[in-house]
Amino acid sequence: MDAQLYDTVIVGGGPAGLNGALYLGRSRRRVLLIDSGDARNMAAGVMHNVLTNDGATIEDFRARARAQLAAYDVTFRDDEVVSAEYDGDQVVVTAERSGPVRARTLLYAAGVRSVLPPLPGLTDLWGRSVFECPYCHAWEVRERRFAVYGGGVPSECLASTLTVWSDDITYLTDRRELPQDERELLTAAGVPVRADGVSELKPHPEGVEVVFADGRSAAYGALFLHLDTEPRVAPLRPWLQAPDLESVQTDDRGRTGLPRLYVAGDLGRNMQQAAMAAASGGLAGMAINSDLIREDRPGSLPEPPPPVPGR
Questions:
Q1: CB-based contacts of 258: which residues, under 8 Å, 6+ apart?
Q2: Could you say which of 1.20.1260.10, 3.20.20.140, 3.50.50.60, 3.40.640.10 is the CATH number of the domain covering 117-225?
Q3: In sequence order, what are the residues at sequence separation of 6 or more whose Cβ sits closer than 8 angstroms to the Cβ of residue 11?
Q4: What is the pLDDT of residue 311?
Q5: pTM for the whole thing?
Q6: What is the pLDDT of residue 295?
């Protein structure tokens, strides 16, 4: 076991974990950040809507962030966390290759995993001509012909939002009959519905070719769809009994109902965007620093607000 006792171990090296490390490092805290490198948005390759980093590659952003953090007491390990558990007044975090470490607190920012529908050809086009977030990707394909796939996760609101970037949008669905509210929203947005069923996606010079159940096909500049997500919380079992961390988060600074466990990024309450994730990491870093000050110097700071009722 690593003999070092860290003030905080951070799990996850995306914007949330990195910004949490920055706040804590600048607070003279001893930090270990463990990152698997398996970012949710790695397929897209770039990040957007972050000032001074709009369009930056994910790899370059992470490398520059780590270089800046070198000025502080922040250590990095590229490893996969397999377990984390509460042990008295400490947390024990175990990584696959480097083994267990101890810390006074744990900031969990491992994010979520996108669950792609079982649509042939989707995986190869994901992040290239098939997208989920209009704010992250629609500008680059603006004014092209769009398709919106309302498959397992209805996407009528997404179709309406995309009318800002294109006036040629078709809603594709495998359902012959849409619920009335869904159809009314699409009609109000001027988005026609094609209910021929989607059987396959193929690359196309324009962007993506959609093959329908009857064998016909159509080309689009881009295809958008909503996805289900899975919280990456397996290492926290059985310490975490809830289905996710958002349900045990007790305030907007990432505190949770579990001792010494904090949450930031896509696993928390904030919208799943890079800038919001980074902000949540900073808030969690401040909360951790404040709580450690209270622990070391009782009475020196007011107590944090009580948990939100019902959580």
A1: 86, 239, 240, 248
A2: 3.50.50.60
A3: 17, 34, 35, 81, 84, 93, 106, 107, 108, 109, 110, 235
A4: 47
A5: 0.92
A6: 96
Long-range contact set of residues 230-237: C-beta below 8 Å, sequence gap at least 24:
230/112, 230/113, 230/115, 231/112, 231/267, 232/110, 232/111, 232/112, 232/113, 232/267, 233/108, 233/110, 233/267, 235/11, 235/81, 235/82, 235/83, 235/84, 235/110, 236/84, 236/108, 236/261
C-alpha span between 220 and 148 (Å, rounded):
10
Tell me the angle at which helices 58-69 and 15-26 cross, rounded to the nearest 10 degrees.
Answer: 10
* Higher pLDDT among residues 101 and 45, named by residue: 101
Question: What is the spatial distance between Cα 69 and Cα 155, in angstroms, rounded to a whole number?
Answer: 40
Domain limits of the chain? 5-114+228-296, 117-225
Structure tokens of 39? 């970012």
CA distance 239 to 96: 18
Q: Parallel, antiparallel, or unpaired for β 90-95 and 99-108?
A: antiparallel
pLDDT in tens, 69-112: 999 999 999 999 999 999 989 999 999 999 999 999 999 999 99
